[in-house]
Design a protein that fits this description.
This protein is of the alpha+beta class. It contains four helices and nine strands.
Length: 162
């Protein structure tokens, strides 16, 4: 019997993130309550930069951006949201995107698989992802359901089910 496997990854689709940022920028440009306060949403390298004239306004822009990410299917766990900070005459918030599974989260996931998954399931950490293997596809599907029920600090995707 062949060994079946799948990979556990944690990645943000850059195209969906681009779409969310563009939609947020359009809404901020069009909304009346953001007129004349210097509100802006833009990419700055790998981070999204939010600007507004006051801390309250930049938090309102952040709410708009978060709602657009949710609508595009990106979990808010995948965003690394900084605190508002003053920069000249405006306030800014930087949002980073989390990609990859950190070694401590990978160890937590592997521990859950070791303790709660069926005994035929084995996991292996490979860089910033995990490979899960078993001879039984049903055991792998049970493992996926188990991991979806757990609450990790990151959003998990299950790919390459073979």
């Amino acid at each position: 019997m062949a060994v079946s496997s799948f990979d556990i990854v944690s990645k943000v689709d850059r195209m969906e993130a681009d779409n969310a940022v563009n939609q947020a920028r359009k809404e901020v440009d069009q909304r009346y309550d953001f007129k004349g306060i210097g509100a802006d949403v833009s990419w700055q390298g790998e981070q999204v930069l939010l600007k507004a004239s006051t801390e309250e306004r930049v938090r309102a822009v952040l709410d708009v951006v978060q709602s657009k990410f949710i609508k595009r299917g990106i979990d808010l766990k995948m965003l690394d949201i900084g605190d508002p900070y003053p920069s000249g005459k405006e306030f800014r918030v930087e949002i980073g995107l989390k990609n990859g599974i950190s070694s401590e989260n990978a160890k937590k996931i592997a521990k859950v698989i070791r303790e709660d998954a069926p005994k035929s399931v084995k996991s292996q950490i490979q860089g910033d992802e995990l490979r899960v293997q078993s001879k039984s596809r049903d055991d792998l599907q049970l493992t996926i359901r188990l991991l979806k029920g757990e609450d990790f600090e990151i959003d998990l995707q299950f790919i390459n089910f073979r």
